[in-house]
Amino acid sequence: MSISITPFPDGIGADVAGVDLANLTPGEVDAIRSAWIAHQVLRFRGQKLNDDALANFSANFGELEGAPIGFKTRTYKTDRPEVTVISNIKIDGEAIGGLGDGEAEWHSDMTYIDMPPDASALYSLEIPASGGDTWFMNMYDAYDALPEAMKAKLQGLTCKHDATRSSDGKLRSGFRETYTREELPGAVHPLVIRHPDSGRKALYLGRRLNAHVMELTPAESDALLDQLWVHVRAHAKTWSQQWRVGDLVMWDNRCTMHRRDSFDPSSRRLMHRTQVRGSTPPAAA
Ligand code: SIN
């Protein structure tokens, strides 16, 4: 077996074949790291990973995060504290993981904290017959496709990223339904960041719900963010992953957003996820 990397024709993502993620050589780790920076999203098919193997693979790319707020349950335990469960399955009426069976809106992971993860890896254990596809958006491309006047306008602007709701729109436990703009729990990041490894500029939107641009009035902020979201939906390059059991998809959280399609609530979907700790997203000068 030798590693092969085949970019998708969509302008984001690549298939990586010829590797067993439970037994990587240092050379293969280097090749995967380079491909991850170059292609932003990598898919590995046909992997057999227990939680130790998933966590050990992910730790090649940095220190692992614990599970995000609200993703831990009493009814289902992973073998490693760094492994988070994404699932609609319920045991004794309690969901065993996060995000259920509904649509998850476009977002980057955990941008509501000061140092959002650099990487996320999602591994499929059970999948529905249809639905539940995961879509990825190229945020370098989203920035590059902006008109020059808009690029100039975004210079120096920062955005508050809401910590109170998950990407399926649900209120996280411990938070209130409403906050004033000033009170809203979350983190503030530049609207345009420079990726520390690629050196490229990326539009850094996080998610739309409750986002606001700190330097603008509420009306100006909503108008600008709405314009940016119309732009990314129309112009950014996207790729969708149709899951098979044993797929692992790893993405660069600094230069991509992702969303998930809904699926039949009577079917089962079980994914284990890891996240690599990041640093403060640097503003693009
Ligand atoms: C996520 O938004 O992190 C989960 C995506 C998925 O369930 O496919």
Q: In summary, what is this structure?
A:
The chain is of the alpha+beta class and 285 residues long. 19% of the residues lie in helices and 27% in strands.
Key descriptive features of the protein:
285 residues, alpha+beta, Double-stranded beta-helix, 2 domains, 8-stranded mixed beta sheet, 4-stranded antiparallel beta sheet, 19% helix, 27% strand, globular
Q: Beta fraction of the residues?
A: 25-35%
Radius of gyration: 18 Å
Helix content: 10-25%
CATH architecture of the largest domain: 4-Layer Sandwich
Helix count, DSSP H or I runs of 4 or more residues: 5
Query: The CATH topology of the largest domain is what?
Result: Double-stranded beta-helix
Strand order of the largest sheet: 1-2-3-17-9-19-4-7
Terminal-residue CA separation: 43 Å
Q: H/E series, N to C?
A: EEHEHEEEEEEEHHEEEEEHEEEE
Total separate domains: 2
Unreliable segments of 5+ consecutive residues: none
How many DSSP-defined strands?
19
Q: What does the oligomeric state look like here?
A: single chain
Structural class: alpha+beta
Mean pLDDT metric: 93
Name of the CATH homologous superfamily of the largest domain: Clavaminate synthase-like
Largest sheet: 8 strands, mixed
Present as ligands are: succinic acid
Net shape? globular
CATH class bucket of the largest domain: Alpha Beta
Report on this structure.
There is one protein chain. Helix 1 (26-39) links the parallel strand 2 (14-17) and strand 3. The protein has 2 domains: 4-137 and 239-276, Double-stranded beta-helix, CATH 3.60.130.10; 139-234, Double-stranded beta-helix (4-Layer Sandwich), CATH 3.60.130.10. It has helices at 26-39, 51-58, 139-144, 148-154, 218-235, and strands at residues 4-7, 14-17, 41-44, 84-87, 90-91, 94-95, 98-99, 104-107, 119-126, 134-138, 158-162, 186-190, 192-194, 201-203, 212-213, 238-241, 248-252, 256-260, 270-276. The chain is α+β, with helices and mostly antiparallel strands and 285 residues long. The model has no long low-confidence stretch (mean pLDDT 93). Succinic acid binds at residues 86, 99, 104, 109, 122, 134, 167, 258, 260, 271.
